[in-house]
Amino acid sequence: MRLVFLGMPGVGKGTQAKQLSHELHILQVSTGDMLRAAISKGEANGKEAKSCVESGRLVPDELVIRIVKARLLEEDMKNGFILDGFPRTDAQADALSQMGESGQLDRVLSFEMDEEMLVSRLSGRRTCSKCEEIYHQIHRAPKQEMICDLCGGALIQRKDDHSDTVLERLRVYKKETMPLIAYYESRGLLSHIDANGTFDAVSQRVMAVVGANLRK
Ligand code: ADP
Ligand code: ZN
Fold first, then answer.
1. Main-chain phi, psi angles of 26, to 5 degrees
2. Ligand 2 centroid to 129 CA: how many Å?
């Protein structure tokens, strides 16, 4: 099964992707996580991406396309994947459609939620500096303040979760990524997911869509 998750920052698509990937025994490919890893390791790709990621702008298409293409060719991708955070522009969507079998998508899920809700979610978001697990100061507080429940790593506020950068990321999403909803709709691949409500409620909506696809 090859899936793409679209949605504004903070909509919870990463957390849903993680859960679904376990259920389907496929891997989640998050370009955001890959870029942050490259930045913290000081790799060349990371150096190129750093200023864009930290200010909430998109990293150049050429760079992300190159990273994703290489990743999707690896052996562990052959049962499928969930692309989380890619494609984000028309050029990326076109490039994906030309990646041979990897570009043959089964379904694209668009996670949708009120914008005011997103801003409050993102500004309260805390991320584990070691394993990238996501917390929220109010809605999903860790057992011990600023410590990851899973790995004991220190929780941090991502630079791009500061409030001015959050608004920039929402602006960029609307301008660059929103047109992909129509792009995939016209190809008969899109399902809208109401992303309001609890994690479990949203997860059931995701399963309903993916389950229908599995039976086909
Ligand atoms: P979110 O969806 O919450 O904004 P991500 O972790 O998906 O967070 O992405 C963080 C940042 O990484 C983006 O703001 C952007 O700078 C960069 N990035 C991730 N994926 C892409 C992509 N497909 N194209 C360009 N930039 C990307
Ligand atoms: Zn952790």
1. -130, 170
2. 7
In 62-74, which positions are buried (b, 16+ CB within 10 angstroms) versus exposed (e)? ebbbebbbebbee
Q: How many A from CA of 58 to the centre of ligand 1?
A: 6
Measure CA 144 to chain center.
Answer: 26
- Of 67 and 115, the structure prediction assigns the larger pLDDT to 67
Q: Is 55 helix (H, G, I), strand (E, B) or coil?
A: helix
Indicate the burial class of 37 (C-beta count within 10 angstroms; 0-12, 13-18, 19 or more).
middle
- The answer to whether residues 83 and 5 touch, using CB atoms and an 8 Å cutoff, is yes
pLDDT digits (tens, 9 = 90+) for 82-100: 999 999 999 999 999 999 9
56 lines ligand 1 (CB under 6 A): yes
Pocket test for ligand 1, best of 62, 63, 88 (most atoms within 8 A of CB): 88
Q: Is 31 in the pocket of ligand 1 (CB under 6 A)?
A: yes
Residue 216 has pLDDT above 80, yes or no: no
pLDDT digits (tens, 9 = 90+) for 6-64: 999 989 999 999 999 999 999 999 999 999 999 999 999 999 999 999 999 999 999 99
Ligand 2 centroid distance, CA of 44 (Å): 25
Tell the residue number behind the tokens 């379904």, with chain if given. Answer: 107
Task: Point out the ligand nearest to the CA of residue 150.
Answer: 2
Q: Is 173 in the pocket of ligand 1 (CB under 6 A)?
A: no
